[in-house]
Amino acid sequence: MCYRTLCLLLFSCCLFENGYAQATDTYQVSPADVSSIDAIIDASYDVISGTADEPRNWDRERSLFHPESRHMPTRYESSGAYTVDVMDVEGFIDRADPFFKKAGFYEYEIARKTEQFGNIAHVLSTYAWKNEIDGPVGGRGINSFQLLYDGTRWWIMSVFWQQESERHPIPEAYLPTQTASRHLFNGHDLSGWHADVPAADSLDGLPPSFFVRNGYLVSAGEPRGHLISDEVFQNYRLEVQYRFTGEPGNSGVLVHASTPRSLYKMFPKSIEVQMMHENAGDFWVIVEDIEVDNMVERRGPEEDWGIVEGKARRILNLTDGSERPLGEWNTMVIETVDNTLRVWLNGELVNDGYNATVHRGQIALQAEGAEVEFRKVLLTPIETLTER
């Protein structure tokens, strides 16, 4: 082994041993935030976004970034030279906190390109920012993230960013396209969705079952019904972040939805991915069907199976304890390709189905008795499922 390689190895060991001690001894790390590239990137945007009177959780910021990491904003100087400021995590916090206390700031991802080799990854994350959640876009740019997986969690090693300008418009390759991820909820209204609430047919003046509050899509729980996408989708990955705001209860995401009010004059023909508290990840078949391994164990006696009223339509999920504590955000990922359906909750595989009787349709969110907030409904076209 050459002297240079040996020195680098010794330096790396010291860096990571010291970094781990600092990261684990001074603040709590949320396992969900650092479980995947998606999770840690999402958390990095979430932690800096909020109103002027909403204190940022800087310990959460520290938990995402390795202690030796760097924040590197770039800018033009008055002389015309282009330069970069290099800061550690504490330097960034010192600079950003006074700014965030003066004005609201919301930064969110609009497109992403990820490259990974082994335990290292590079993410070019195109962002937009606003001063108010429902206000106009103030600007766009690209964040260049470098990440490391240490065998137990992901770390952000650096983030290097440049704001879009007339001189440097963002190339089309880094903007959303029909093959890139799409936010089905835009953060300020219900464009692209329509509600089906049966009680509204006969009762005037009912409160809305679905609305937007503080930048979140809210399912009020009552009156019961569904918020249904205008578009039909197939072969996609759907990431949904949700939480119960008060008493825990029931809700769900319906995939491959079609004919409305096909079951109990309420539920559209579909396959439901359950979000009910302590049962999230169950399948409920609604005039469609799907198979899983160990069907009798998870669905009951075969003679009771069915897809209509009075039949055994529930298929139990694979895990217990995958949900986060009440009031905290859960991340549900649903992947479907052809006639397969695979679901993760907070990074854990919770259901895996195949031979579904349907492979395309609308997406629906339920109002089913409990208030639920959704802050992310992100759809990405895919050709193959993520491995189990």
Fold blueprint:
Elements: H1 3-26, H2 37-48, H3 58-64, E1 65-76, E2 82-84, H4 89-102, E3 106-117, E4 120-130, E5 139-149, E6 154-163, E7 182-183, E8 193-196, E9 210-213, E10 216-219, E11 225-229, E12 236-244, E13 252-257, E14 270-274, E15 283-286, H5 295-299, E16 314-315, E17 330-337, E18 340-345, E19 348-353, E20 362-367, E21 372-381
Parallel strand pairs: 1-6
Antiparallel strand pairs: 1-2, 3-4, 4-5, 5-6, 7-21, 8-11, 9-10, 10-21, 11-20, 12-17, 12-21, 13-14, 13-20, 14-15, 15-16, 17-18, 18-19
Helix pairs in contact: 2-3
Would you give an account of this structure?
The chain is α+β, with helices and mostly antiparallel strands. The protein has helices at residues 3-26, 37-48, 58-64, 89-102, 295-299, and strands at residues 65-76, 82-84, 106-117, 120-130, 139-149, 154-163, 182-183, 193-196, 210-213, 216-219, 225-229, 236-244, 252-257, 270-274, 283-286, 314-315, 330-337, 340-345, 348-353, 362-367, 372-381. Strands 7, 9, 10, 12, 17, 18, 19 and 21 form an eight-stranded antiparallel sheet that branches. A seven-stranded antiparallel sheet has the order 8-11-20-13-14-15-16. A six-stranded mixed sheet has the order 2-1-6-5-4-3. β9 and β10 form a beta hairpin. α2 (37-48) runs antiparallel to α3. The radius of gyration is 23 Å and the shape is globular. The two termini are 38 Å apart. Mean pLDDT is 90; it is low at 1-24.
